[in-house]
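Second opinion, please. Please look over this fold, written as tokens:

===
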Amino acid sequence: MADSPEIIEAKEKTNDREYYLEIVKKAPSLIEWASEEIRDDKEVILNAVKVDGGALEFASDRLKDDKDVLLASVAQAGWTCCYASDRLKDDKDVLLAAAKVDGQVLYFASSRLRDDKNVVMTAVANKPLIFKYASNRLRNDKDIVMTALNKNKNDVIDFLSPEMLEDEEIKAILN
């Protein structure tokens, strides 16, 4: 399959910063064709991820470790924290912002943040099934369990501990 005219132009202008500053506002995925230098340009990448968080995939490793870039990306598409550096997968601000948009991000969170009640509660309120990735301690936290069950008990029931299954309030929800 032949490249589109947009891709052909992007490939021809691989080092043209001004071109990429503008084009990513309309077609952020074209950043894939930019030079490494352009993909390491914070302004260009911010323009791209504000339109399509998925453009973060093509950012340099340095920018995948930049909190401003990550916050802009996850605000648009929470799941993009999968591209974050390990340091930012352990940053509570980044994970909370991402979890508000897409609870699935708990899957990418550090073990420390999988044990952070605020992060887990935000993620579970957005996507109950992600409960299974919470720490063992928080899978036994009644507030979190109740939030998840009230959203979708079918997504959560298989991951409840025997202790939680004996709780009267939880039994009432399940029956």
In short: The radius of gyration is 20 Å. The chain has two domains: 1-89, 109-175. The longest helix spans residues 142-156. Residues 1-89 form one domain.
